[in-house]
Amino acid sequence: MTDALYPSRSVGTGAKVAAGFHEVRPAPMTTRQLTAPHAVLLEEPQQGVPQTSEMICGERFRILEERDGWLRAENAFDGHVGWLPPGTAHREPVAPTHRVRALRADLHPGPTHRAPPVATLSFGSLVTLDGRAENGWVGTDDGLWLFAGWLEPVDAPPATDHLATALRFLETPYVWGGRSSFGIDCSGLALTAMAAAGVVSHHSSGMQRKDERLGAWVSDDGRDVEYQRGDIVFFPGHVGLMVDGANLLHATVFTMSVVIEPLSEVAKRAEINGVRRPGQGVRRPDLTRA
């Protein structure tokens, strides 16, 4: 993820893509809501380019531009901007009533586990219930059913333990630009864990490193730090969370999954360039080490 993928970015008319020149049509600032279980945000309006982030069901986004069916969208959740592929399902926004608290939640055509699921939602997805309830199942406004135990009201208090949230993603596949239980990257894991605790940052380890909302700045280099559970440790282009005084939870390409490794082993591959401690006062980082 790069810092350039957050608002204040604009593509002028006449921008070109690999296939040739296309007229960019600025779109009115229309707000829409994702109804697909999840959707990729891409660097450019074409297939085969890197994914920069991901949206999950129920999130709202602003349409900034339209080009040949592609939508340049700004996710209202964290401000990330990218291109949504043609055919991505969305609608006029509807107020959500509940959030998925399970790591994954299947949507069923009927109020029973015997009805084969038709789709799966990720942790954090937003849904609107329509008042139907039967045998522990609740109806959604699109006519489907979810097990009630997988949900919490949207106004439920934030989680008190961001690391506990992150640990639920252990062994989740690594996906560059991912931030769901279908696949997640390092900054997506930190973003998701802290958002569940009520602090929404950025889908970029570099921007997270500079984000004072994520807690006290403990160290510029990780030396002589008595690490605590939940500390956020930064490396060039990477981030993870301490499980205890010695081990790091992170999404890494070295295993293509979310794993726990000794911090000392991770530090052999990349130099620590910052440590934050959520829930404590603020001290500014040395930005010359970014």
What does this protein look like?
The chain is mostly beta strands and 290 residues long. It has three domains: 3-91, SH3 type barrels; 98-153, Roll (SH3 type barrels); 162-289, Alpha-Beta Complex (endopeptidase fold (from Nostoc punctiforme)), CATH 3.90.1720. It has helices at residues 162-167, 186-196, 205-210, 263-269; strands at 16-17, 20-21, 25-34, 38-42, 51-56, 60-67, 70-75, 81-84, 90-91, 98-100, 104-107, 119-122, 126-127, 129-134, 137-140, 145-147, 151-153, 179-180, 183-184, 216-219, 232-235, 238-242, 247-252, 257-262, 274-277. The chain has a six-stranded antiparallel sheet. The longest helix has 11 residues, at 186-196.
Structural class: mainly beta
Approximately how much beta-strand content do the residues carry?
35-45%
Output the CATH topology of the largest domain.
endopeptidase fold (from Nostoc punctiforme)
Work out the count of structural domains: 3
Helix content: 10-25%
Evaluate the radius of gyration.
20 Å
Low-pLDDT segments, ≥5 res: 2-24, 281-290
Number of strands: 25
Spell out the CATH superfamily of the largest domain: endopeptidase domain like (from Nostoc punctiforme)
- CATH 2nd-level architecture of the largest domain: Alpha-Beta Complex
Q: Biggest β-sheet: count, sense, barrel?
A: 6 strands, antiparallel
Gross morphology is globular
